[in-house]
Input
Amino acid sequence: MVFWEGYVSDELMGTIAPIVVYWLYAGIYQLLPPLDRFRLHARKEQNTKNSVTLPTVVKGVLSQQLLQATLAQSLFWVTAKMDVSSNAAQPPLPIQALQFLVAMLVMDSWQYFMHRYMHENKFLYRHIHSWHHRLVVTYAIGALYNHPLEGLLLDTFGGGISFLVSGMTARTAVFFFCFATVKTIDDHCGLWLPGNVFHLFFHNNTAYHDIHHQLKGLKYNYSQPFFSIWDRLLGTYMPYDLVPRREGGLEARPSKDY
Output
């Protein structure tokens, strides 16, 4: 039993819930006080280093979410017609937990290789992936600021493949996609807050991804959004130290020269 049962279908909830969660969770970060002592970059760097404005980022995220919602609803509709998702009974919780883990690994694998290729292919980086790297200093609302084609290839296709390979139902997918959304936002929030559960359970976290957005880290730390397995296996892992800045806050600094 879930709170939306009887009001909207699992398929529709799986489409709209991640969008609602995105703006609620990212909005909370946006409304926080300055918290300068927990920032990985000084606030002034957001204006001096980023080449895109907040209104442009918001418009870009909204357009990407519109495309994702359309395709997600289409995928859910097809699987429902095939009796894959909505008509399937919910499996026991241990099975759902296993499906969650499989989906996490599949999503990580898909995004690592696609993400890495977009860096190594100069044309794709220049014309597509560089959009995301206009945010050198990342913040929560910009987590999904990408070129529309990148949003399609990395996020939409990655999510769809994770859903299909894991065999989860549409109802389980609601929770998985919301969880993946929250994790992605947290990785881009630019804050190292004490007690953050993602920092406790995932080495692939805010500082890990901040390294990737730095010039020295562009060819490292491709893994997202959950684990760092592929980076470690394939030699693209860049270790880092969190160093206090003299003017306040923290800096994620590569542990050695590369």
